[in-house]
Amino acid sequence: MTAVRDHHQPHSSAVGWPGAGIADAGSARILLIDDEPQIIGFVSRALQRAGYHVDAAADGADGVKRAISTGYDLVILDLIMPGLDGKAVLAAIRHALPHQAVLVLSCNADVSTKVECLDLGAQDYLTKPFSLDELLARVNARVREESRHSEVSHLGQLTLDASRLVADSGDGPVALTRLEFLCLRALVERGGESVPKTVLLACMWGIDFDPGSNLVDVCIRRLRAKLGFGLIETVRGEGYRLAC
Predict the structure, then answer these.
(1) 243 φ, ψ (degrees, to nearest 5)
(2) What is the chain's pLDDT, residue by residue, as a tens digit (244 residues)?
(3) Which CATH architecture has domain 11-146?
């Protein structure tokens, strides 16, 4: 089974759509870790035509070695590989490089697997078969996101450090998971306004989210436990807002 939807579509339709490239794509480096030669070839060509520099690794061990030794703006990672699987690769890369951006590209569509990977530090998760347009859009978004990682946001007494995934509500820095960070940042960016659950979920999960998921409620409970139960208020019938 081909892992890319409409594999025989013309390359021009895959990479020539408006906004496929970004202004600094020529300076961005991407590492693709996948054991399927077809995927490596197809995705590498598309990314190169969009202006990215692409390296590839055909197994997990080589992927970890390349990621740690060469510095990349983004790692695109398959999960199901012989030997060292994708979760182990993700954990190893994030342990050595806590700020490395990783986009998981896998045929595993199980929600628990997606949540586990995001909690391990992946920035995004796209399932196979996939649209090449969507992959390029997500790659562009992740590369742009990395340019914001030095930002420190403030709202009242709350400080949110994107480079370390750390928040401080006045009692000292507290480490957050990636999902907790994304949820809290969405609240910070909207000040003290009420933010609907669907908006928070989209900010945390990207464009491929389940509107019926309780992921937001779980993250809010964790954030309250870590940063104080008075930090985030529930707006009944709407969503949540910061009490800062």
Answers:
(1) -90, 5
(2) 334 443 333 232 233 333 334 434 556 899 999 999 999 999 999 999 999 999 999 999 999 999 988 878 899 999 999 889 999 999 999 888 877 899 999 999 988 999 999 888 898 999 988 899 999 999 998 888 766 554 678 888 899 988 778 999 988 999 998 889 889 988 998 888 999 998 888 777 765 556 677 889 999 999 999 999 999 999 998 899 999 7
(3) 3-Layer(aba) Sandwich (3.40)
H helix or E strand, kind and range, residue 171: none
**pTM exceeding 0.70:** no
69 burial (CB, 10 Å; 0-12 / 13-18 / 19+) is exposed
Q: How far is Cα 37 from Cα 72, in angstroms, rounded to an integer? A: 21
Exposed / middle / buried, residue 139 (Cβ in 10 Å: 0-12, 13-18, 19+): buried
CATH, domain 152-242, list 3.10.105.10, 1.10.10.10, 3.40.190.10, 3.20.20.70 = 1.10.10.10
CA 153 – CA 175 distance, rounded (Å): 15
Q: Among positive and negative, which fits the CA dihedral 221, 161, 64, 105?
A: positive
List the structure tokens of 237: 């019938």
